[in-house]
Specification:
The protein has 157 residues and is α+β, with helices and mostly antiparallel strands. It has helices spanning 3-15, 37-48, 59-65, 104-110, 117-131, and strands at residues 28-32, 54-58, 75-79, 85-98, 144-154. It has a 5-stranded mixed beta sheet. Strand 3 and strand 4 (85-98) form a beta hairpin.
Length: 157
């Protein structure tokens, strides 16, 4: 990630806002989605296209990092696989639920593959099978997920 480029992108976003916008005072975090550059490219493109309006992560990962989970209003500067800024999103809803209780509507909002619950379960099981062992965990059907919905609020034209 090029920190100067991220800051420049944020400054472009701020310049697009009215002077009295409450978004000006909110913090943001740069983040790539997925666990590898190819997946970050794919997911960031889906966000920019408006097809991906939700994401999830394992609560265990947040706990292992000692980080707070996103809250409504969280701003994320989305990075692609090479660490370039592609857009800014705002979290609109956050729910905690077990893996086996994620519903088809949420899987569709994630925008991946054929957008089915079956695709979502298979793809996310594979991802959690890669990422959770790094923190000493194994995926299971009851693992708690942070299910986040968001809206695209800025992309360069």
């Amino acid at each position: 990630m090029n920190e100067k480029a991220v800051k420049d992108y944020w400054e472009q976003f701020l310049a697009s806002l009215p002077a009295d916008s409450p978004l000006r005072s909110r913090p943001y975090a740069p983040e790539a989605f997925g666990d590898n550059p190819e997946l970050a490219d794919e997911l960031s493109a889906l966000i920019v296209a408006g097809e991906k309006t939700a994401t999830c992560s394992a609560l265990w990962e947040w706990e292992a990092e000692g980080a707070s989970i996103p809250e409504v209003g969280t701003l994320t500067l989305v990075l692609d696989g090479s660490g370039q800024s592609v857009c800014i999103i705002e979290t609109t809803q956050v729910d905690l639920r077990p893996f086996n209780q994620v519903e088809a509507q949420f899987a569709f909002a994630e925008g991946e593959g054929d957008r089915s619950l079956e695709y979502w379960r298979n793809a996310h099981w594979r991802m959690f099978s890669r990422t959770l062992p790094k923190i000493g965990k194994q995926p299971d059907q009851e693992m708690p997920l942070v299910c986040e919905r968001f809206r695209l609020i800025y992309k360069e034209s």
